[in-house]
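User:
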Amino acid sequence: MTSSLINPPLDSHLNSPLTTETRVIELAKLDDALSKILDSLENAQFEDGESDTLVSKLQDSIGSRQILIAQLVNDDQIQDRSYLQGLAQSTKNFEIRARNVLADREALLGALRKGRRQTNLYKTIDSNR
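Assistant: Predicted structure:
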């Protein structure tokens, strides 16, 4: 999906770049996918190998979303400023959720490192007896 948004796909019926309506629909689908990815990340176990895949999908989806929004902002057919303001608010909401996931992951990683240091310290103390 990402590569098709980097190089906008041609509308199969018109053999032309995506229409404004199609971009709006694609953006809505992408927003739904982003929300589901963030839900999965918020509920995933830290040790879960799927987390790396989800983070990669999140990055790809965010990049695709940025491209679509840029196309919509530059589209002369979009006259509804409240729609664009809604997109900006959605972006802020996604950013907040992503930052919360990042903070949680960093905290878990810090706790994991601290636990490993303590384990190594106890092993060192035990080996010196």
